[in-house]
Structures are given as structure tokens and as C-alpha cells.
Amino acid sequence: SYASFTAMCVIGLVRSKRADHVFVESPPLFLAVPGRLVAWLWRATAIFNVADLWPDAAVDLGLLGPGLPLRVLQAIERWAYRSYDVVNSVTDSVRRVLTDGKGIPERKLLDLPNGVDTELFRPIAPERRAVHDLANTVVYAGTVGYIHAPEHLVSAFALLAERGRDVRLGFYATGSELDRLRAHADRLGLATVSFADPVPLPELAEILPGALAGVVTLADNDMARKTRPSKMFPTMASGRPVLYCGDGEGADMVQREDAGVVCPNAPEAIADAIEQLIDGGRADELGANGRAFVERDLSWNAIVDRWLVALEQVR
Fold this sequence. Notes:
Blueprint: H1 2-14, E1 21-26, H2 32-42, E2 45-50, H3 56-60, H4 68-83, E3 86-89, H5 92-101, E4 109-111, H6 126-129, E5 137-143, H7 151-162, E6 168-174, H8 178-188, E7 193-196, H9 201-207, E8 213-217, H10 222-225, H11 232-237, E9 242-245, H12 249-256, E10 260-263, H13 267-280, H14 283-298, H15 300-314
Helix pairs in contact: 7-8, 7-13
């Protein structure tokens, strides 16, 4: 999939007008090659945005082992880090890997973390929350992939049903693990778990503010711990608490800002955390804390403004 996408990217670049900057997203790591070549051709600033550390992520997840494919990917990675004018990191953990493990000099490293449109995603009045009838629903909105290990979340709702809890789980999702997740919910016979296709962002901005919480799940591996999952920021901006199932940099952020509940990604721990949200009486307070945090530090306007100033200094 990544290789074919890169091939189509070349067609798009050939048809494009000259730009002052070429911004390349990784993954797919393969995009580093056509992106850098066209930047040379146009004499443009070449910017490599490391959204995930590849091929490290594939190795950590057990999807790629020693052999020629790994050596080729590692060679492309080293070449990209060496040849690009600017390299962006999305988290503090990734930045440390890039400097300490990959040898990228600080002078060419910039921070461009995940953020959120705080104008689109915002709290709504309590009376409007009832429109979608989601007050007792935990919402999972975004990709369902191998790194998310979402099956434990579904299993938690089987435990909550056994405990007699009137709480639901709503997926607005797509991804490689979705079919397996549906089958898991069917095996458990859960009427409290529903699946819907992803919705446009304006529609999601109407759904999240009325939910009990937004949920993030991550597998137990080093690569997941280095991430700040982007799906948690619309929840914060919508004034709802984050249920963070996992650990690492994202979990530390939720705890530091008192913007939700953090628990291990295990069925019983997740069920207990949801009961804590229901019974604790702090859901609105946690949501307000998250909203204040993203307004201050993680609105896209603020992030991009800071990044553009830093980019001019690098150039």
C-alpha cells in the first residue's frame, strides 16, 4: 500500500506547481525519496515530518524482522534524516530518539506536535447534549489499528454489562482491526457496543461534546508509549474527559492536566475506570481542564504560528 501510494505521489508532484517548501509526512517512509528529489529540483526547503518512527514501529510491533526489507528501510531512513533541511518531531519522546538514537543535530529539529481545531471542537450547552443521546456513551473516534489493541475495551463492556451498568460504547471508526473487533463484540453478544462509519469532522464536533467520555487505547509496547494519540485532543477541546487506556507520553499528559482517567489497557481496569467516571462526579471538571489545556497550548493556530517562526530561524 505504501509503495503504490508513493508511486501515485510522483504523478501528483509532476503535475504540481513549484513550491517554496516541500512538507513530507512519514509514514509512509517511502515518500522521503520523491519528496526530497522534487525539493532539490524546485530549490525548496525540504521538511520531513516524523509522525511515527519507521521502520522502528514495524519492528517493535513484530511486523518486520531482520532481513533485506528492513535494511532497505533503515537505509532510506538514514538518508532522509541526513539530506532533509528540517526534521519535525511530534512528541518529546520522538525528539529524544531522533537526537540520541538517530544522531540528528538539534539545529535542524523542530517540534510540530498534534493539535486540534479549538473553534470547530468546543463544549456545547447541556441542553444540546441530549440531541444525540450519548450521555452514557463512551466514544471511540478514529483509526482502529494493531497498535491500539482495542479488543480489551470491548471486553470491558462485557464486564460492565455483568455489573448491571447502563453504559454504551460507540465506535466511529475504520482500520485494519475493525473486522476482528466486530467479530469479538459479536462473540460476546454485546448489545451495548455499536459500530458506525467515520463521520465528517463537523458531525463529530456535534457528537463528542454530548458523550460521557472519549477513549484512547494503546498496546503495551515502547512505540505506543512514545505517542500522543491525536484522537484525544478533539475530546479535550469538546470539554469531555479522556479515558486513556495505556501508558506513556499521552497518559502522562492526561494525568498532568487532570483531563481524564488513565488506566492499563486491560478489561477489568478499563471497566473500573469507566465506573469511576460515572460515579466520581468530576466528568465536567475533567473536561473543562482538558479544554483549558488545548486552548492554551495545542490549538492548531498556536502550534503552527510557533512552528513557522522556528522554521524561519532554521532557514
